[in-house]
Amino acid sequence: MLPLDEIIPAGPVVLRPLHEDDADAIVRACTDPEIVRFIPLVPLNYTRHDALTFLELAKESRKAGGAELAIGDRETGAWLGNIGIKPPSRYGGAEVGYMVAPWARGRGVATAALRALTARAFAAGLPRTELLIDVENAASQQVAMAAGYRREAVVREVAADRSGRRADMVLYSSLPGDTGEPARRYLPLFPGGELTDGVVRLAPLGLGDAVPYRELMSDPDVRSSLVAPDGPTAAEVERRCRHAVTEWLAGVRADIAIKDAATGEFAGDLQLAKVDPVLSEAMVGYSLAPGHRGKGFATRAVNLLAEWAFSHTPLVRLIAGTLPGNLASQRVLARAGFEREAVLRNGLPVRGGGREDNVLWARLRP
C-alpha cells in the first residue's frame, strides 16, 4: 500500500521507514509503564534483541500488505514513536495502531501522525480505518478524537491483556467522507486530571478505587439510598471502574472518586449521570464512606463538580434527587447551592420493590 521508501509529512513530524538505528530508542521507550500496560505484545524487560526482532516483523507486515513506520522528528528524523496499519480485512478496512515515546508526548505527535497516515491510507483507496483502544487508555482515546475518529462501540472481551484477562476495547473509525474535525467532547476531562479545593480532591474513578468503592456500595446507609436498591455486584464495580474514563470521554457520564486531599484516601464517590445534551442537563449523585462523614466533604465535592460543569461544559442545569427522609443529603445540596424544586410522587424505587417520593433539587448555571 505504501512505497517502502516513502516519507510522509505530518506537521511537526514525518512518517518514515524504520531503520536499525532506531533500535536503541525503541528499547528506551518500551520500558515505559504506559506502553507496557497498554501494548501487551511488547515483551517485559525489553532488550535490543526484541527491538531488532520487531524491525524484522515490520518487514513481514509490509509484505502482507500492511505498513510499520517510524514517527520521526521533522528536523532531525530522530525516532519518536511507531505507527502502523495492518493489512486490509476482507471488508477492505484496516486497523491502525501507534505508540509514542515518553519524551515526545504532549506535543501533538500522535495526533499528527495518525491524521497523516489516515489521509495516506484513504489516498491509496482504503474505505475505512479503525482503532481498537483499551477502555482504560484515556490518552490514546483522546488522540483518536483529536484526529477526527469517531467512537463507535465498546467491543467486549476482544483482546487479552498481559495477565490473560479478556479486556474490553473501544472501537473508533474514520471514513474518507468524514470531516476530520476533532471530535467534540461534551464532558472534557478535569484540567490536569483532577479538581481540588485543598480539602477534597476529585479524580476519575479507576481500577485502584475498586476495593474501597465496593466497600462503600456495601455500606447499609448507602444501600438504603441507592436508586438501584440492590447495589452493584463485584463484577459491576470492576466494570464501572475500568470503563469510567471511556464513558466520560463519550459524554455518557462522569464517575468520580472523592479523596481526602491531605492523605489521598478514598472518601466517597460522585457521579454526573443522565447527561442530556438536548436539555443541557445532568444528574448529580454522591456517597461518602462512614469514616469521612461529618467533615463537609460531600458539600465541597458537589460544589467543585458544579463549578467545573458550568465553566467547562455546555450544561446549564444540574439536578439531584433524594428520598424524603434523607435529610443529610438534602443539607449537602442546600449548602452546595441547590434549591428544592418539587416532589415527584413515587419517583424512586426502594428495596423490597416499593416506591417512594423523589425530592428534586436543582442548581442552575449562573
CATH topology tier name of the largest domain: Aminopeptidase
By CATH reckoning, the class of the largest domain would read Alpha Beta
The CATH architecture of the largest domain: 3-Layer(aba) Sandwich
Quantity of strands, as a count: 16
Helix proportion of residues, in percent? Answer: 25-40%
Gyration radius from CA atoms, angstroms: 24 Å
The backbone outline, from C-alpha atoms, is: elongated
Order of helices and strands: EEHHHEEEHEHEEEEHHHEEEHEHEE
Secondary-structure-derived class: alpha+beta
The CATH superfamily name of the largest domain is Gcn5-related N-acetyltransferase (GNAT)
**What integer is the average pLDDT?**
94
What share of the residues does DSSP label as strand, in percent?
25-35%
Strand order of the largest sheet: 1-2-3-4-5-6-8-7
Enumerate the spans where pLDDT stays under 50 for 5 or more consecutive residues.
none
Number of domains: 2
**Count of DSSP H/I helices:** 10
How far apart are the first and last residues' alpha carbons, in Å?
55 Å
Instruction: Summarize the main sheet.
Output: 8 strands, mixed
Notes on the protein architecture:
The protein is α+β, with helices and mostly antiparallel strands. The protein folds into 2 domains: 8-174, Gcn5-related N-acetyltransferase (GNAT) (Aminopeptidase, 3-Layer(aba) Sandwich); 191-364, 3-Layer(aba) Sandwich (Aminopeptidase), CATH 3.40.630. 29% of the residues lie in helices and 31% in strands. It contains 10 helices and 16 strands. It has helices at 23-29, 33-38, 48-63, 109-123, 138-146, 210-218, 220-223, 234-249, 297-312, 327-335, and strands at residues 8-10, 13-17, 67-73, 79-85, 94-100, 129-134, 150-160, 166-174, 195-196, 200-204, 254-260, 266-276, 281-288, 317-322, 339-349, 355-364. The strands form 2 sheets. The chain has an 8-stranded mixed beta sheet, with helices on both faces. An 8-stranded mixed beta sheet has the order 9-10-11-12-13-14-16-15, sandwiched between helices. Strand 9 (195-196) and strand 10 (200-204) form a beta hairpin. Helix 1 crosses helix 3. It is elongated and about 70 Å long. The model has no long low-confidence stretch (mean pLDDT 94).
